[in-house]
Amino acid sequence: MERTTIDLWVGIFVALGVAALLGLAMKVGNLTTSNIGDTYTVNAAFENIGGLKPRAPVKSAGVVVGRVGDIRFDGATFEAIVSLKIDKDYKFPADTFANIYTAGLLGEQYIGLEAGGGEVSLAEGDKIIQTQDAVVLEKMISQFLYNKAVEPVAAATAPAESTKTDDDALTDSPLDDLLN
Amino acid sequence: MINFLRNVGSNFIDQIWRLGAGGRLFGLMLISSGESFRRFRLVVREVYFTGVNSLVIISVSAFFVGMVLALQGYHTLQKYGSSEAIGVLVALALVRELGPVVTALLFAGRAGTAITAEIGLMKATEQLSAMEMMAVSPIARVIAPKFWAGVISLPILAALFSMIGILGGYLVAVPLIGVDAGAFWSQMQANVDWQFDILNGVIKSVVFGVACTMIALFEGYDAPPTAEGVSRATTRTVVTSSLAVLALDFALTSFMII
Fold first, then answer.
1. Complex-level ipTM beyond the 0.90 threshold
2. Same domain, A79 and A103
3. Closest Cβ opposite residue A13 in set B81, B156, B192
């Protein structure tokens, strides 16, 4: 069977199609880690990571300094262990604070590092001790509602013994409005 | 008034007749497909004409569609402070809808018209009858290879369209606008599902491939053997294919989304 240029082009065409499908299947994966140079890995334990995903940015002062590596669940402490790959160029003190923040109201979650004042820098494999969990909106709302539900009871018993000032009336009324 | 009703009725009956003839052609074509698979070279040749030659128009339009999606998406998303979701938006829009649909529309315009014109002209110059005289079935020799070439080409083109569109969206979102590259990809990867999004997109493009190619083939085969007849058949190919693709897209999506 002789070969023609048409065969070659069709071969290229089919190969391109398969490559595109593979690329889509991998969801255009793993191309991004290359834009950070050498990194060192530190771990941080969180009680709740919310919607944090692997490869989310790690920011300090709003600048991207690394990426989230992998996220594991520690069965012994019941905490999430997040490994942070941080650019080798940036050294952080050992008492650095790691928080999980949300970009915007509905945006994706990222880790914010707040540098501490210690002399010793974090090194490969170290663990960040001071962490703050992701804010879970439902928790906040239920806490808020709970607080509001307790207050009127105190407010109802209080006026009997204490004389109400105008200031009290001003501060009380918006809360009552919220509840009713 | 009577004439108007008469016209509507005769057009309607004509359409039904054409639907039946198209179905019959489809059946005949399927029966004689085995023969054209044994001579696979014919199919390869047609893949070259319908698929490879459509590469340029598909890639260029995919690139621009992706870029415009990213621009428009960013404009709206940043109002809600979630411009990182731009990757998901571009990828899902392309993989689920725009990839298969726009590819099929372009395919109908680029390759479908060529198929109709070629077959219509072959019929007008009595090449098809000549084949029959030589005991060569024109359906096995001409129609079936073109059909399978279309069915093979369109999913490949659609996959390329999605891929190139995503790259175009990336180029606008990341270097131009300054969305974080990691967020762009990681949000995309977290939200694009292999089976639900990508595989369904492929299924759509296969269905569109069958519809577009079959309409083009039938219009050519059914064209009156005159210059005007061929030109009308070519126009009808584009109109019917586009409508069929959009209607099928709605039907398929409503099945898949559940």
1. no
2. yes
3. B156
